[in-house]
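Revision sheet: structure tokens.
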Amino acid sequence: MREVETAKRIPLPQGEVLGRIGKTPLIPLRKIGEEFSGVTLLAKAEWFNPGGSVKDRAAHGIVLKAEEAGHLTREKILLDATSGNTGVAYAMIGAAKGYRVKLCVPANASSEILRTLKAYGAEVVLTSPLESSDGAIREAKRLYGENPELYFYADQYNNPANWQAHHRTTGPEIWEQTEGTLTHLVAGIGTSGTLMGTGRFLKETKPSVQIVSVQPDSALHGLEGLKQMATSIVPGIFDPAFPDLNLEVKTEEAYAQVKRVAAEEGLLIGISSGAALAAGLKIARQAEPGVIVMIFPDGGSRYLDEQFWNE
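Predicted:
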């Protein structure tokens, strides 16, 4: 009985869930990498974040910056547009911190994403699937314009706290995990925050590192979370002159790599992760000996309903 009473008096740590954001593992793809002499393929496994994706970093950074500036208070509703993972991150953080969250989401977002948002208690506004994430952005701006006093509009596509979160966390982690040996960073572009923040830190630390951006090869694609910049609303935080190389990936290429990694490496990865791997393999086929780090934004459990698994 005395032991139980003592345990009750131990204070519980605050923010325990949010304290788990970051410090994700860097996983070598040994079997897939066997065909490349002198090249090491490393996957930054962002599904180890508590919300299940790399977007936990940006969403947390945006919220912290808004709290510090007094822009996000209990009286405000956190509002943003999202194609999925950032919304989950906002909803998780909102639940943990006690904020109301309202999210504009394309109606063709995965059913798993939509169920997760509702599980965390977020209000979801579905937008036209034909307009993809751009339609969600336009709707979020409309809602904010109608009642700016009601909302904190996070605006992940234009908020510098997005890329700054990666400059502060993702970049230093990769540098430490590779002991400075990396030669390439490969990252997909959605908001571009991961690429810009991580890439800037690595370029500042080692200018010879090659920054490779990954985009879909067409406007009509199945790479959830990624944008083809030529046909989309370009995020304000994206600098098209920053990447050393831009690679376009077909949806089918990404699907094939998702299935391959599951079968050969025992990793269940998401579709945008498959796109990053497809691009990384293109680099590996033409690279000198080197260390290629690919950002894998999320895992595959949210995409198991996709038809390609049955093909």
